[in-house]
Protein 1
Amino acid sequence: MSIEVSKIVQAVEPSATLAMSAKAKELVAAGHKVYNLSVGEPDFKTPQHIIDAAVEAMNAGHTHYTPATGILPLKEAIVADFQTRFGLTYKPTQCVVSNGAKHALHNAFFATLNPGDEAILPAPCWVSYAELIKLTGATPKIVATTQETGFKLTPDAFRAAITPKTRMLLLCNPSNPTGSCYTKEELEALADVAVENDLFVIADEIYERLVYGDATFTSFPTVRDGLQDRVIVINGVSKTYAMTGWRIGWLLAPDNVAKKVASLQSQETSNPCSISQYAALAGITGDQAPVEAMKAEFAKRREYVTQRIADIPGLSAPAMDGAFYAFMNIQNFLGRKYGGVQVDTDKDWCLELLQQKKVATVFGSAFFAEGYARASFAASMETLENAFDAIADFVK
Ligand code: PMP
Ligand code: GLU
């Protein structure tokens, strides 16, 4: 016999970002030199004091179960950091630490959405939101934004997408995959629409420390009084401290939501890795100089990538105010042959770019935006130089 998988998992697509990265790694294993701009993860080593804290934690015997929602010192550090930088107070009981921000998102969706609910996703949006929302039985409602408005949701587009079934807006700021960053005024306008329509908001702020040039980051629950009651904030250490493999993220939520997420997580996974929690604690409470150094390096690469895109006739991308992605408009390069192969879609373009030039990117349609390719600049300058030489050559 074969085991029939459930209807709900049948509908789940694999993560395209991870799939493109796996394809790139396969080519590397086969002996090719690949310029990997696919997966979004800092290429830096986790700062040494964080690694040391993990070793110390193991030696101190912190190798057992922890409270389901995470160790108290870590939750205290997370809420204290939020209070210091954004001026809003959360209790440690409103913080649930999970196995990465992806898991925190899953918990947030599961704890709040019912089958039949609609959740608004401004697109382009990160690959995992829609799939995780579908797992709850709710419907992701994709709302397209345009390159002209910097791929930001406008209050009018938000209002127009609301139906009697709408319960939630997901806002990723700064955005993966577009790099756009909302101003305080833009967030205020969106908050007002959420309040008028009695919706809650999940604010994915995992790239909040990576904002460049004149752009500034504003945390969503701070923009209007009382908003904390209808917002769940998502964050984690993956991007800020180059800790993708340690799997620590969290949510900050109203009491009732945090309490049920705690129950859910206690049944699902017990707790996030004890050792990683001590490492994350060292990251948040320790020296922030490595974060600033990584950010300065990302800023340099961003300038370089912006220039390279501007230098390729027919290629464009919105301003990259935050995160570490260039969302390249490749519409001028579709509907033609590359090395004898007809390429009509962004997916084909990215696959041929990988096959023929060994540059890995992620196709825009994975983010609900056909005609784009996302290039991560969380890669060394040398990789970026070679990758953009190859892209320029590919489209010539
Ligand atoms: N949100 C966004 C927008 C992301 O890009 C990522 C990257 N993986 C995550 C959440 C999840 O991060 P992690 O699970 O590594 O903490
Ligand atoms: N968030 C990163 C990306 O978009 C990591 C991959 C993933 O978690 O999907 O590439």
Protein 2
Amino acid sequence: MTTPRPPVSRLAPSPTGELHLGNLRTFLLNWLLARARGWRLLLRIEDLDAPRVRESHSQSILDTLAWLGIDHDGTAARQSDDLEPYRAAMRTLASRGLAYTCALSRAELRRAVAAPHAGDREVPYPEALRPTDPDRFRFDERPVNHRLVVPADEVRIVDGFAGSSVFRPSEEVGDFVIWTKQGVPSYQLAVVVDDARQGVTDVVRGDDLLPSAARQVLLYRALGLDPPRWWHVPLVLGPDGERLAKRHGSTSAESLRRSGVAAERVIGLLGHWLGALPHRSPIDARSLLRRFAPRLDGDSLEHLGIRPVTCTEEDVAWLSACST
Ligand code: GLU
């Protein structure tokens, strides 16, 4: 008799900047879920966005997670280490008539769909512009974008936090780019290939990526693979009501660590935001896990009521209140 394999999840940071309290809340919840339920938790550095990636950010992400006690299983993987699995997926898609080359620039696309004033807005790539020439349905390693044939189907995402939502990628994005003219897979393709080959069964990440889940489901289907279970976590907002980001400087993990804030304070604030602690109070990750684990059971965690939270100036001041 074979023992069933445990579910697998992953932390997938992009080393394009420092982690902030919003990223940390999602990672902490991913870690709590994994450790409470006996999932394996992998770490994958998503470093294919070459111009924005910095080695120093990779190191600072690893240091921050270790500082907070958010551990992972196995060695960290880097997407840039081996592009062959992505190329293999491209060859499969092209051989199935589901991926094709497209040399249109953004401006040409806007003109072709008569939306020259769309500004920076992404224009959905319409079916009408899909080529008929079989020669275009080949994986071509020369510097050219490749697009996925996106069917007109609705895609329903059933999510452990967000419940059920319906997307129509053919209208929202149309045939989206899956391989870029820089010679690397796009985020959408890379994440699907990696999650599939690493056996990821449960994806926990920010809910800004919920629409991406629908696009990724189309890629899973096109490659004949089963999608994972989804857990999209509402984001943390800055004091200005905008999604927490790098420009909210004082919330970067690196600057908190450098200014002597205790890891237990950061975990205590994040735990309070997750509803695991009635008030902000210092606690280490393992102790938080012991308190929160009983509430992390079930196929849906809608009962936890995890909602967007605002990181207030008082929150940031509390973090530093007892700095060493
Ligand atoms: N690397 C992506 C990010 O940092 C997350 C990708 C994912 O979880 O699917 O936004």
